[in-house]
Amino acid sequence: MFAARNVIVILAFACLTLGVGVAWAASEDLIGEGEGTRLLSRSIERERSEERRAARERRRERREPAWMDAADGKVIAGVKRATLESIASCESGGNPESVSSDGTYRGKYQFSKDTWKSVGGEGDPADAHELEQDYRAALLYERSGPAQWPLCGS
Are the beta carbons of 126 and 98 closer than 8 angstroms? Predict the structure, then answer.
């Protein structure tokens, strides 16, 4: 059993060192929760981080807008995604095409058109890509805090 565990750890490390992606479902009786599992987890997370960085670079090269980076992580423009999801859920049920009954507030975060423009948005917020709405809401939250959403932001 000891030899099998060592072989698996050595093979996994060799694959990661050579840059080969490994999908791993470790059997506890072979490798357990030891150092090999932690090393593998850190290597996979590092690889994912590098993939996200490379995707951001490709978007920059294609001159895609900054809001496209909103898809990459748990934090958007300095604001936790969970915070934004909570606001959006309360404001519009998370519907990026939502429009208030009187038409004043629009999109996932119920922006007024003036507020939308103040964070760099163009056109109708309800027509904007959902990731752009997330990005612009994060900019607004960073600038003004939760007070912009008096019922849902606190």
Answer: yes
Q: Where do the domains of the chain lie, and which CATH numbers do they carry?
A: 2-61 (no CATH), 66-148 (1.10.530.10)
Summarised one tens digit per residue, pLDDT across range 77-108 is: 788 989 999 999 999 999 999 999 999 999 99
For residue 120, give the DSSP letter. T
State the pTM of this model: 0.57
Question: Mean pLDDT across the stretch 35-46?
Answer: 67
How far apart (Å, rounded) are the C-alpha atoms in residues 39 and 35?
6
Closest by CA position to 152, among listed 140, 121, 135: 140
User: CA–CA separation, 59 vs 52, rounded Å?
Assistant: 11
Give Cα 143 distance to the centre of its chain: 20
